[in-house]
């Protein structure tokens, strides 16, 4: 069962998780905990599909998905940064909103399939040379462009966070906004920009589901993946490179129930379906059990920052 | 900067209520924009929603039946939220309460009604409570993030009930339809004034939770712990024990809601017994600022929203999801309005700017 085709499929199933996890890493690096990932993914999924369905243009579809995700994040940012609302509840409200928004707009689209022009665009492309490497090639380098874009995003985000001045400033904002402010970093601007970008990435994760993975519109298409992404951020200890590993691991868990049918293993599919959720809990408990300095969240995470109350 | 934000020292009750009322009004106007996008008149739709929720004795009863699990679950969540423990596992706790109660109902269908129902209630309380103890234990022991654990447990509970429904508990007489057998008449809660007795249980719980939170030692400890863990530690409060006890209580109340839903509404165990109530209850609890009396009001308001959502679906062909958009809008504006209750925006006079602002 653990064949090359299984691992290759795990990469595909992990791609929406990867985008959402990267988006939430970027968000949490600002010190804000946005629990609305599921909502932003759904907003991206429905807007991407809606625009893709009517225009047939993959670029417009992806742009719409990013804007929708960023719009959701914008509501959250306005509430938590400018209006100083509770971060947990604002995130939960965003998930409620995104869920309603997607089924409201998606009502007339249920069962519709992604147009040909888009599904062709996302056909697998073997990368010359790399795809010929035994085992690694067919697992990693024979995918659609969206999957490659996932690799690229993770690497770019890693470089941004660890190798650039802006990335350093961002981490300072998340660790100690007071000190960052004193060093004349515009805390509010940094928070807004990165939370919006994070939302755009979550929107892309949703669009991968509706445009490539399924590829059709169905109600509640994310099925809890946004929440798994929030857990993956902790699993990846806020590191984009580790997010790659985590997302693909959970991609594998996601498809294992389906793959196990037709083998000689006699376990109910519904019990196997529990696996990603169960493993998420085990991972979280393990991470919290093994707390260390290197593996800790941004120090300012979840704490609101108001200059005049410093 | 010409404007500055300053903390209000105090705010009159009228003004704070006025700001909240304005928030609801703005939420309705913004949601109205969504309805307008569908080329419908928002006012017609809102009037029709009112009609759908309260327009006839039957509709009022339906709204109350929807409000019961919402109210009970919210009361449970309020205890957890007071401690700043983000229990978003209401769904799972409802389902596991229903599962435990159903275990009794299906295995002992013939014991006398009062005994059977009492046993089912105890089972439901235990089911929800024990399910909530899992995240509470990890939180108390290692500080594991409870938000995600409670949420993951929702999915696991849902898969578990689905497994039972399709597998070991499947009704062989249901002609291949995957459902659990119906409960015996002894396992069904009686009705009072045309609505199952759950409404009386819910009202009793409002009083009990109110007394627990405002006038008991444990309730006070929960409030202190929610404010600051350090203060709680200095005050000699046993933090681990407080987390475990209060979250068990929180989950057990949701579990009781699960028992009531299984017994009185679906009359069997089904995945639909929770019906999203665990999530909606988060909103109703928060809107009511964790106050049991206000939770009664917000639960009825949201039950009306849910009922009218399905009503306008048939009347106007509007997706019932419109109701959840309105719900989220109300919450957004409420969250935002809190700022205007806590702070005041004042204009800086030019003299002040000349002096250097702050």
Structural class of chain B: mainly alpha
Largest interface in this structure = A-B, 43 and 46 residues
Cα-to-Cα separation, first versus last residue of chain A: 56 Å
| Residue share in helix of chain A | 55-70%
User: What is the number of helical segments of chain A per DSSP (H or I, 4+ residues)?
Assistant: 14
- Write down the CATH topology of chain A: ABC transporter involved in vitamin B12 uptake, BtuC
CATH C-level label of chain A:
Mainly Alpha
Strand/helix succession of chain A:
HHHHHEHEHHHHHHHH
Count up the helices of chain B. 14
What's the CATH architecture name of chain A? Orthogonal Bundle
Question: What attributes characterize this protein structure?
Answer:
heterodimer; A: 310 residues; ABC transporter involved in vitamin B12 uptake, BtuC; 14 helices; 69% helix; 1% strand; B: 358 residues; two-stranded antiparallel ribbon; 4 strands; 72% helix
Task: Present the secondary structure layout.
The complex is a heterodimer of chains A (310) and B (358).
Chain A: H1 4-29, H2 37-55, H3 58-82, H4 87-106, H5 116-121, E1 125-126, H6 136-140, E2 142-143, H7 145-163, H8 165-175, H9 177-182, H10 187-213, H11 225-235, H12 240-260, H13 269-272, H14 275-289
Chain B: E1 3-7, H1 13-37, H2 42-54, H3 57-82, H4 90-107, H5 113-142, H6 146-166, E2 191-192, E3 195-196, H7 198-215, H8 217-227, H9 229-234, H10 239-266, H11 277-287, H12 292-316, H13 321-342, E4 343-347, H14 350-354
Structure, explained:
The complex is a heterodimer of chains A (about 300) and B (about 350). By secondary structure, chain A is mostly helical. Chain A has one domain (about 5-310): Orthogonal Bundle (ABC transporter involved in vitamin B12 uptake, BtuC). Chain A has helices spanning about 5-30, 35-55, 60-80, 85-105, 115-120, 135-140, 145-165, 165-175, 175-180, 185-215, 225-235, 240-260, 270, 275-290; strands at about 125, 140-145. In chain A, about 50% of the residues are buried. The model of chain A has no long low-confidence stretch (mean pLDDT about 90). The termini of chain B are close together. Chain B has helices at about 15-35, 40-55, 55-80, 90-105, 115-140, 145-165, 200-215, 215-225, 230-235, 240-265, 275-285, 290-315, 320-340, 350-355, and strands spanning about 5, 190, 195, 345. Chain B is built from 14 helices and four strands. In chain B, strand 2 (about 190) and strand 3 form a beta hairpin. With about 350 residues, chain B is mostly helical. In chain B, the strands form two sheets. In chain B, strands 1-4 form a two-stranded antiparallel ribbon. A two-stranded antiparallel sheet of chain B has the order 2-3. Chain B has a domain at about 65-295. Classes of the chains: A mainly alpha (about 300), B mainly alpha (about 350). The interface of A and B includes residues 78 and 268 of A.
